[in-house]
UniProtKB/TrEMBL annotation:
<dbReference type="InterPro" id="IPR002994">
    <property type="entry name" value="Surf1/Shy1"/>
</dbReference>
<dbReference type="GO" id="GO:0005886">
    <property type="term" value="C:plasma membrane"/>
</dbReference>
<keyword id="KW-1003">Cell membrane</keyword>
<keyword id="KW-1133">Transmembrane helix</keyword>
<dbReference type="InterPro" id="IPR045214">
    <property type="entry name" value="Surf1/Surf4"/>
</dbReference>
<feature type="region of interest" description="Disordered">
    <location>
        <begin position="246"/>
        <end position="271"/>
    </location>
</feature>
<comment type="similarity">
    <text>Belongs to the SURF1 family.</text>
</comment>
<dbReference type="Pfam" id="PF02104">
    <property type="entry name" value="SURF1"/>
</dbReference>
<feature type="transmembrane region" description="Helical">
    <location>
        <begin position="12"/>
        <end position="32"/>
    </location>
</feature>
<keyword id="KW-0472">Membrane</keyword>
<keyword id="KW-0812">Transmembrane</keyword>
<protein>
    <recommendedName>
        <fullName>SURF1-like protein</fullName>
    </recommendedName>
</protein>
Length: 271
């Protein structure tokens, strides 16, 4: 009855179904795990940004790798900005997706150590070789508040660290790289400044990271699992249809050609 399943066509179709089922199950779990990571990150961001600000020296030190648990933690830093070693980070976007640069200014702390401060976004220069117009820093000693961030790397960010860039332009925000350029100890990671606000509004501070949306990963996971359930159902439907078609063809063949009408035969003159 089901010997047709041993045909080449049906063996191939069955093997494809057997491969699709575990593959789509795995894709569903991949999206589900991405959903879980997004939910966990949102919780981490919310907990971190709502924490009480602490002096930056309590969370990092020269050569320190900022752990994930300290990402976005509010910190304070008191010192004097060093504009002589200020650089800009190329190919960064504003809150409304305009291409520009981030301004990195070293802040020399009272103990002589340095922390890199991302003061915010400004438009890029008219050409890629020129240094953009950067708003001046406050004079004298200042106290800033910001979010602690880990050093950027090519592996983590996907941003290529291009060589041969114009003077005072970089691709990554990296404290070790800046320590080499400055020639002094630099605290690990960097600070995204959130306060005080720029007086003239010419620099756009980095907005608070999104921690409300969870994306569509869970919906994608459910879709993959629905597709998984659809494969065996579709296979069974095709098998039953094939069986029904074969039985109908067999029954039609067993009946043979239709018998001629007797009256018509008698009425036909013989030759």
């Amino acid at each position: 009855m089901y010997r047709f399943l041993l045909s080449r066509q049906w063996v191939i179709l069955t093997l494809i179904a057997l491969v699709l089922v575990p593959t789509m199950i795995e894709l569903g779990f991949w999206q589900f795990h991405r959903h879980e990571r997004r939910v966990a990150q949102n919780a981490l961001i919310e907990d971190s940004i709502s924490a009480r600000p602490v002096p930056v020296e309590q969370l990092t030190s020269p050569g320190h790798t900022v752990p994930r648990a300290d990402y976005w933690r509010p910190v304070t830093a008191t010192g004097t900005f060093d504009t002589a070693h200020e650089v800009v980070v190329r190919r960064r976007t504003s809150s409304d997706d305009r291409i520009g640069v981030h301004v990195l200014t070293p802040l020399v702390l009272r103990d002589g150590k340095i922390v890199i401060v991302n003061r915010g976004w400004v438009p890029a220069a008219a050409d890629q070789h020129s240094y953009p117009a950067v708003p001046p820093v406050p004079k004298g000693e200042v106290t800033i508040t910001g979010r602690l961030k880990a050093d950027e790397t090519t592996g983590a960010s996907g941003i290529k660290d291009l060589k041969g860039l114009p003077d005072r332009q970089v691709m990554l925000i990296n404290s070790r790289q800046q320590a080499e350029l400055i020639g002094r100890e630099v605290l690990g990671g960097y600070v995204e400044q959130t306060a005080p606000d720029p007086a003239d509004g010419t620099i756009e501070q980095i907005p608070e990271p999104d921690h409300d949306s969870i994306g569509a990963h869970m919906a994608y996971a459910v879709q993959w699992w629905l597709f998984t359930a659809g494969v065996p159902v579709g296979w069974v439907i095709l098998v039953r249809r094939e069986k029904r078609d074969r039985e109908a063809a067999a029954a039609s063949g067993a009946a043979g050609p239709p018998e001629p009408d007797t009256a018509e035969t008698l009425a036909t003159p013989s030759r």
